[in-house]
Amino acid sequence: MRKNVRRLVLGAGASTIALAVVGAGLTVANLASAEAEATAAAPSILQSTVHVGWGTQNGGTSGGGSAATTTVTSASALTSALSSTAAANIRVSGTISCSGMLRVRSNKTIIGNSGATISGCGFNINGDRNVIIRNLTFRGWGDDAINVQESATNIWIDHNSFTNGYDGAVDIKRGSDFITVSWNHVFGHDKSMLLGHSDDNASQDRGHLRVSYHHNYFDGSNQRHPRVRFGNPVHVFNNFYRSNGGYGVASTEGAGVLVEGNYFENVDDPFHLGEGDSGPGTLVARNNHFTGSGSGQQGGSVASIPYSYSLEAASSIKSVVSSGAGAGKVSL
């Protein structure tokens, strides 16, 4: 029986519940009872798994699962917890000031308590798998805030906020695969999300870099939302783009990007083919909403999306995403 994943948004500022619905039997009449049932049966947020996008493939993404939970309040404790080879659920409390890139090993869920902030450093997922990062504010990082590389797989980056860092907020490269980037808020920052390391890295990246970007709020950030090389299909849906000075989405070096159901507000260049010295990829755009924005450039075809998803009307995305994206918007 085919399973459809539906996302129910419970009003501005409320938590968002992902409902896995078997068949097509969910109606408005029984929505409230289904919500109550799902809430009662749901595991702890630390045991949540990705419900939509490429992160559901290849066995899914469950992070630390039912492993023990530890709370960290210092850079040394965070570094130790992230680098352990054992599965773990890690709660971050308060502001942790750090530098460099902290290695994150496999089978980890890292989630911020209310107001949790990572200041001055970033997370490096280097060849590991099954990692969830949620509800953290990253600011002032000196390299990348989150770097996913060297064939890392099954990563879920959800409901985080990113501001005022040096390089990428979320960079994914070097053969990494099966990743969902959802409900994040990027503001006061230039280079948001790079997908694909460089033009000469085709042998490692081609056939990989399958990533879903959905319900992210690119809030006055400048470029790379995302900038894509080689990955096909890359799925960019139901995101809110506001006043991006450079561009929204770029498809380059033979990538295939599906851009659908997004809301573009005051974005002169919503999406295009090629970027800088990188040759063009392909891009299919459909069902997007434009206000005070250009029409974008598209061309070619994109491989089919293999997972089920529910596309929200693009006209509703500004309200849905601006109220729901970023740290502090998930129920703890």
Automatic annotation (TrEMBL):
<keyword id="KW-0119">Carbohydrate metabolism</keyword>
<feature type="region of interest" description="Disordered">
    <location>
        <begin position="275"/>
        <end position="301"/>
    </location>
</feature>
<dbReference type="InterPro" id="IPR011050">
    <property type="entry name" value="Pectin_lyase_fold/virulence"/>
</dbReference>
<dbReference type="InterPro" id="IPR006311">
    <property type="entry name" value="TAT_signal"/>
</dbReference>
<keyword id="KW-0732">Signal</keyword>
<keyword id="KW-0624">Polysaccharide degradation</keyword>
<dbReference type="InterPro" id="IPR006626">
    <property type="entry name" value="PbH1"/>
</dbReference>
<dbReference type="GO" id="GO:0030570">
    <property type="term" value="F:pectate lyase activity"/>
</dbReference>
<dbReference type="Pfam" id="PF00544">
    <property type="entry name" value="Pectate_lyase_4"/>
</dbReference>
<dbReference type="GO" id="GO:0000272">
    <property type="term" value="P:polysaccharide catabolic process"/>
</dbReference>
<comment type="similarity">
    <text>Belongs to the polysaccharide lyase 1 family.</text>
</comment>
<keyword id="KW-0456">Lyase</keyword>
<dbReference type="InterPro" id="IPR002022">
    <property type="entry name" value="Pec_lyase"/>
</dbReference>
<dbReference type="InterPro" id="IPR012334">
    <property type="entry name" value="Pectin_lyas_fold"/>
</dbReference>
<feature type="signal peptide">
    <location>
        <begin position="1"/>
        <end position="20"/>
    </location>
</feature>
<dbReference type="GO" id="GO:0005576">
    <property type="term" value="C:extracellular region"/>
</dbReference>
<protein>
    <recommendedName>
        <fullName>Pectate lyase domain-containing protein</fullName>
    </recommendedName>
</protein>
<keyword id="KW-0964">Secreted</keyword>
<dbReference type="InterPro" id="IPR045032">
    <property type="entry name" value="PEL"/>
</dbReference>
<feature type="domain" description="Pectate lyase">
    <location>
        <begin position="65"/>
        <end position="270"/>
    </location>
</feature>
